[in-house]
Design goal:
- This protein is α/β, with parallel strands linked by helices and 306 residues long.
- The chain folds into two domains: 2-122, Rossmann fold, CATH 3.40.50; 125-230 and 260-289, Dihydrodipicolinate Reductase, domain 2.
- The chain has helices spanning 12-22, 41-48, 58-62, 78-87, 102-113, 128-135, 138-141, 160-170, 231-243, 254-257, 259-272, 292-304; strands at residues 2-6, 26-31, 53-54, 67-70, 91-95, 118-121, 144-150, 174-181, 185-192, 197-203, 212-217, 221-224, 278-279.
- A seven-stranded mixed sheet has the order 12-11-7-10-9-8-13, with helices on one face. The chain has a six-stranded parallel sheet with strand order 3-2-1-4-5-6, with helices on both faces.
- Helix 8 packs across helix 11.
- The N and C termini lie far apart (39 Å).
């Protein structure tokens, strides 16, 4: 399929590009909103990476591609930037975090339910290590009932990886979340309706922690440490066949795909309310959620120095 890249904020567009091509897809153009990079960056990126077009608008791109990949680190703009592609019936891949507000997640869910092919989120949801564990015979690994998952560097932009790794192992069905506090390392209890539970560990601010998960079942204890070098391929090999129409069904239903973001929103609310348990069903669209614009500015300043 023909792919268009929307926003070039992070390292992902360049890192994903050879995988797109190896999987038989063509990146035909880019568009950048300037949240992180200076004017002219899109033209330079396209020239250096052999991409033929720099589009003047998202509407123009939507007429020329089969799928848009949103790489913007201001997650609050994801819905508006996805809208031209949803209106045109084109496929959409939203890089992590999918969105930081409940209303935005609900809008994307509405598109998915209307038939728009939409996917994305954290690559940890699709990591090979979790898939290899789940592929083991159940009589060997047992049924996991408790999982501790963690990573650096912050509670949402990077912390979403830990929630996603947890969801990739235990599957859909998160019902409630409780912030357990922690001065330097945030501890969040995540519970499923059927009694299974997880513990998410993410630094409050800074501090590197590698991706990891300890899985406890009724038969054994396993520890996995996803390797960063294979994460993008693990996601794109699963997601692109669906977005291109080669696979009829998504690798993860969108209702399940957004549970990590919903759990993180619930954890934020729990923290603001002194550790009170928050059910995902009780989340409100009035909650301002995580501030994507503030993160994008912070990311820009870290990259270009103020």
């Amino acid at each position: 399929m023909k792919i268009g890249l929307v926003d070039l904020d992070t390292s992902h567009p360049k890192s994903w590009l050879p995988i797109h091509r190896e999987l038989g897809h063509e990146v035909v153009g880019v568009w950048d909103g300037g949240a992180v990079h200076p004017a002219g960056y899109a033209e330079t990126f396209a020239k250096e990476n052999g991409i033929p077009s720099v589009f003047g608008s998202l509407e123009e791109m939507a007429r020329s591609v089969d799928c848009a990949i949103l790489h913007g680190c201001d997650w609050d703009t994801h819905v508006d930037k996805a809208r031209p592609f949803a209106s045109a019936g084109k496929a959409i891949l939203v890089d992590k975090p999918i969105a930081g507000k409940l209303k935005d997640l609900r809008q994307m869910l509405s598109w998915a339910r209307s038939g728009i092919r939409i996917s994305g989120g954290s690559s940890l949801r699709f990591c090979f290590e979790a898939r290899d564990y789940l592929a083991l015979p159940e009589e060997e690994r047992g049924k996991p009932h408790t999982v501790v998952a963690g990573c650096g560097v912050d509670e949402f932009n990077y912390g979403i990886h830990a929630y996603s790794l947890l969801s990739g192992i235990l599957g859909q069905g998160i019902s409630r979340v409780k912030d357990l506090g922690g001065e330097n390392l945030r501890r969040v209890e995540v519970r499923w309706e059927d009694g299974r539970m997880g513990l998410v560990l993410v630094p409050v601010k800074g501090g590197y922690v590698p991706f990891h998960a300890t899985l406890i079942s009724d038969r054994a204890v396993h520890h996995i440490k996803p390797e960063a070098g294979s994460l993008y391929r693990g996601e794109l090999e699963r997601v692109l066949p669906y977005l291109s129409g080669q696979a009829p069904d998504p690798p993860v239903p969108f209702e399940a795909l957004i549970e990590p973001e919903l759990a993180a929103l619930a954890a934020r609310q729990s923290g603001l309310n002194h550790g009170q348990e928050v059910r995902l069903a009780d989340l409100s669209e009035e909650d301002p959620g995580f501030d994507g614009a503030a993160f994008a500015l912070e990311y820009k300043n870290a990259k270009y120095g103020g």
